[in-house]
Amino acid sequence: MAQARRFDDGSCLVDQSRLTGELALRIERRAGKDVATSQFHQGALRVLRPHYLDSTPQVCYTVVNPGGGYLGADTYGVDVQVAASASLLLTTQSATKIYRTPQGEALSRMIVELEQDAVLEYLPDQLIAYQDASYRQETVVKMDSSSSLVIFEVITPGWSPDGQLFRYDRIRLRTEIHVDGELAVLDNLLVEPGAQAVESLLYLQEYTHVGMLLAVDSRIDSQMVESLRDVAYEVAEQQSEPVHVGVSETATSGLSVRTLGTSTEGATAVLMSIVNELRQRLRGQAAVQLRKY
Q1: What is the DSSP string of 203-263?
Q2: Predicted confidence (pLDDT) at residue 99 exceeds the cutoff of 60
Q3: Structure confidence at residue 286 (pLDDT)
Q4: pLDDT tens-digit series, residues 23-77
Q5: Max alpha carbon distance in the chain (Å)?
Q6: 284: helix, coil or strand?
């Protein structure tokens, strides 16, 4: 059974009396392969059978929500631990769908612990927010300075059957990254269209899709960030629909990427170009091939 773990504000990740879905996973390297040495799930979260995408020891787990989406007042807890020298790629089976939440916002809380030389790539499918949806995602990462982290999200507005754009209420993605016990990155992405259409010139201009990526690794320096910015710009220009990209260096050996666009595919292509460059430059790994379809 997973043990209760607390955030800095005293709130608890695991409260089995109210969680809609819970997942706990610990990855360790055994006999040259990364494997789950501890695994627990209950409610509306599952993981599929692990697989290996390339010749490296890295294991890939896919998170599944059998319920099909998040509803009002749903609460999810995810606890991921990657042991020393182990590597995990965590993804989702399909888009995370946030439906109307009249009972209160849906909430997902995730705690990640990365030990010495551990690697985590969290690469979920897009988050789709439908009309009157409100969602809060809180992620706390506690990592060793020798470990490596990449996470991204793409926020996509839901559509009606006649093609009209739905308007969600609010999406908040809050990410804390602690390195060697010190807060290194605090990223707070809030998208709140309210009564405005998402495409309003007063809000996101002509853009409808928001993407974010955070990477922390001691080998990321200013020169690498500049180089990755060029890669992101080049990929953005190759898209059939416009993608606006911003790439900045974080205070502690890392980078932050934001995208604004009009399609999930465009945002994902830009973010994945950064992911794949980091894989190759930092670990000599090939580009990600998730093999979902």
Answers
A1: TTTT--EEEEEEEE-TT--HHHHHHHHHHHHHHHHHSSS-EEEEEEEETTTEEEEEEEES-
A2: yes
A3: 95
A4: 999 999 999 999 999 999 999 999 999 999 999 999 999 999 988 899 999 999 9
A5: 56
A6: coil
pLDDT digit string, tens, across residues 221-269:
999 999 999 999 999 999 999 999 999 999 889 999 999 999 999 999 9
User: Residue holding tokens 């998402």?
Assistant: 198
β-strand pairing of 46-47 with 59-64: antiparallel
Strands 182-191 and 170-179 turn out to be antiparallel
Tokens of 219: 């080998």
Structure tokens at 193: 């269209």
DSSP 25-85: EEEEEETTEEEEEEEEEEES-EEPPPB-SSSSS-EEEEEE-TT-SB-TT-EEEEEEEE-TT
Of the candidates 246, 250, 248, the residue with the CA atom closest to the CA atom of residue 218: 250
d(CA 127, CA 210): 10
Cα distances (angstroms) measured from residue 100 to each of 10, 137, 199, 288: 29, 16, 20, 33
| Token couple for 101 | 């939440």
Structure-block tokens of residue 23: 């997942």
8 Å CB contact between 235 and 180: no
- pLDDT of 117-166, one tens digit each? 999 999 999 999 998 899 999 999 999 999 999 999 999 988 765 566 66
